Amino acid sequence: MTTAPPSTRVRIAAGCRALIEAPLFSLAVLAVILLNAVLLGAETYHGFAADHTGQLRWAERGCLVFFTLEMLLRLAAHADRPGKFWRDRWNIFDLVVVASAFVPLVRENATVLRLLRLVRVLRTARFLPQLRILFLAVSRSLPGTVSFLFVGAVILYVYAMIGWVCFGSSDPAHFGSLGRAMLTLFLLMTLEGLQDAVYTGLAISRLSILYYGSYVLLASFVLVNVLIGVVLNSLDEARELDARTEATGRVPRVGEPEAEAAAVRVEATAHTQDLTERIAGMRQALDTLEQSLGATPSAPHDQGRMTTTA
């Protein structure tokens, strides 16, 4: 029975896939992305940009042609399975960024076009695994960060109202209104100007040290440590999701329910327990077999040989 030769589309997809998965291709794409960032920064120097307008324009067009060819190769690499291309969020992101440069309204707007060129720099995360994990960790820490911001805003509002009541008349430059008090406390959150604020408060009342001390402890130490804990926890989850992606080929979604990850961990634990029980059963069976072999009498032909010898 002969095997049918692969179709032309399958052969083209296999060849393009081998090309885009080559390390040299990834390095070339990364180099062009960094070159695009350098060109974008060079345009901020007006004298240099005015003297080299033609060269910068041709270099930008060359980068765009390279990115377009890259996207065509990625599309061709998924010709035999196009659904997989659209399931990868990085492919969609790259396609939108590159295709936007050919949209008439966007292409004619210099500001929007520069912003799109700036977004291309984010594509470096596709080729740097650690940077990709950091981006994923930041996206997964957003819910916890929103809660942190809400708690911080409540603390800032409460202390601003207390500061306005206690120091509004004595220090109107910093606590004359709710807005000024919140701005002063927001700057104090970074410990900027804390010494001057404490001395000014002590000149008004000795009890002000309790006000500033409790605020610094809550805002600058407790809340910041909570935020660091949220980010580190999200970083661990991002590493776990990236490992699952490498193992299963499934791209984790931003905001993916934690119940799914918990279910995977429970399933892995159950599989480990089942494997442990099987190993214990096999050991018990081997022990039983050894005991039965030790208690088995000699074979009949050995007994006959012993009788003849006697």
Structural description of this entry:
By secondary structure, this protein is mostly helical. Helix content is 82%, strand content 0%. The protein has 17 helices and no strands. Helix 10 packs across helix 15. The longest helix has 41 residues. The radius of gyration is 34 Å and the shape is flat. This is Ion transport domain-containing protein. It is a multi-pass membrane protein. Keywords: Membrane, Transmembrane, Transmembrane helix.
| Computed Rg | 34 Å
Name the helix and strand elements from N-terminus to C-terminus, one letter apiece.
HHHHHHHHHHHHHHHHH
Give the terminus-to-terminus CA distance: 67 Å
**Class by SSE composition:** mainly alpha
Transmembrane segments: 18-38, 146-169, 181-204, 210-232
GO molecular function: voltage-gated sodium channel activity
InterPro entries: Ion_trans_dom, VGCC_Ca_Na, Volt_channel_dom_sf
Keywords: Membrane, Transmembrane, Transmembrane helix
Short précis:
The chain is mainly alpha-helical. It is 82% helix and 0% strand.
What is this structure's SSE topology?
Layout: H1 8-20, H2 23-42, H3 46-51, H4 53-77, H5 82-87, H6 89-100, H7 104-108, H8 110-119, H9 124-127, H10 129-140, H11 142-167, H12 172-175, H13 178-188, H14 194-204, H15 208-248, H16 258-295, H17 300-309
Helix pairs in contact: 1-4, 2-4, 4-6, 10-15, 11-13, 11-15
Search tags:
Ion_trans_dom; transmembrane helix; membrane; 82% helix; VGCC_Ca_Na; transmembrane; single chain; 17 helices; mainly alpha; disordered C terminus; 310 residues
